[in-house]
User: Fold these one by one.
Assistant:
Number 1:
Amino acid sequence: MSDWVAVDPSEFTTWEKKRLNGVMVNVSVSPYDIPEAVRAFRAPNSNWFHIQLKYSIPEALTLEKISSDMEVVYGINSRRVQEIRIDLTHFPHQEQAALQKLQHAVWTAIDYVANQSRRSVTQSRLGDSFSVTKDILTSRRNLFEEATES
């Protein structure tokens, strides 16, 4: 199991001007929606690859099975993605192809939670937090490499 890799929130906090109720304000993603750390590992004696995100405030979680080879764990209230699990059984053996397929699977899991959230939550901040999650995982692409190691 890999060690947690710290995330610097200032790297992913961007401010933008928005007009809310006729008033110009500066807004950004809540610091609570930026994970403190991430890690990825292949489960021992298993084909399942796990990507975990750690947040400062623990919460009740729910598990959704997206397909037979993908699961996502996220916060019931916050909708923050906490873990993505991917079965690598049918992944290509070429490293580059496997990495591309893995990244696509991770984006699919994040988009799944984002779409679920849009159905049940009308807070505009959520779209930004899903983008930040993708940005963090893109910047830590080396986490995916363990999935392609035999």
Note: Strands lie at 5-6, 16-20, 23-27, 37-42, 48-54, 61-67, 70-75, 81-87.
Number 2:
Amino acid sequence: MDTAVNIYPRQRSFSATGTYTAIIQTSTPIQDIYLANGRRSIRSISFDRPAAATLTDTRHGFWIYHLAIPLNPGESILIRFQCGYENPGFRNSGEVGEFAYNGTFFDRNPEDNWSDVEK
């Protein structure tokens, strides 16, 4: 994983770009990639081979990408992403706690969502 993160504490926001190289560890080929975006931070995603979105559920933050050619066990795929969060201003509730004026933290690594792959 290679990631560049820009944190803006005064705006309580961030932007990031990065890449994952995932190695398939299943015993069968994989043709679909499931992406959960519960925090709605992913702005874009792309792969090093042809893939088409077969499900785009922006309301629940869930996508399925279908690879034109399946990945066989032991093969790898490069995944590029851009993500970020922009604070919309003052709210009465629902503020994202990871970004505060007096400190910023990330409590979850995006790669924790992967199973059956070696990172």
Note: The chain has no helices and ten strands.
Number 3:
Amino acid sequence: MFATCQLWGYFDNQLISIIAFREGWVDQLYVLASSQRRGIGAALLAIAPGQFPSLSLWTFQRNEAARRFYEKHGFTLVKETNGSANEEKETSNAVPIPRRCDDGST
């Protein structure tokens, strides 16, 4: 995955957070639990739209905190799946959330 993605990180004496994205997709966004709610994830997420006009991502339905975070940052739920197609075979649903472009398209 990282060979095809732009990878950005946030460091504070150690790696605290990473984001990996490519054209149209945010593949990973991770912030250490001890560093969450400090604006680090939002700062990294803000980099990606500057690179690509439209972005989508998947998050698991059971991860309500992530879903709220992405919705707060302009992503909108458009589809839920049963999880059978994701590599984790997560029993809960996966959720794609696209970010709208400035013109309102997805």
Note: The CA atoms of residues 36 and 93 lie 24 Å apart.
Number 4:
Amino acid sequence: MQTRLVLLLTAFLCSSCQMERARAGFAESDQARSRNEHVRQLENTDTVNPLAIGLSGGLPRADEVWRQFTADGRYRIAGASDFRFSEAARRERGRHLEHWIELPQISGDFNDAYLSRDVEVLVIDKTRNGDDRFGIAIFNAPQDNQQIARAHWLFEGQDLSTAILGWSRDGLSVEEFRGDGTFTICHVRWDKTNQEYNCK
């Protein structure tokens, strides 16, 4: 009798373990599918809208803003093949750099208007073929959430193939990596008087 109970208990425990493994496998599979789908969508850099992505829901009226910005077919968001980070830089930044390459944009309150829906995007000028085809455009969220935001150019017509945007207690920054993994950094500031961004 005791032996039978032990066997029944063992069978029950094994069945439970298999069910847990199956559930974990399904969860991991769902996460993998979701990530792959996200990356697949971002690979189509002509159609992805980086303004609609962010912790606060993205830029207000993001679809209209991005449609207007890209209407003439000149600009698109930078894609993975546009970057030229060295192996040393990749080791230095790890997963953070991988996420940046997948989606080179960042959102937050950049102009101190207490709205965390401003979006900064690394874009490609499709009329240029050289290293100077990069630009960084910043879209300030309107106070009333109704106006169509326009692009403020932080950089335009520059080689930013090894650049990454960062966000810290010091605010927004742009880091440009050298081949050995070291980098230069400038801090982004909003000039309220001239209504423009600069990086020093």
Note: The first strand starts at residue 75 and ends at 77.
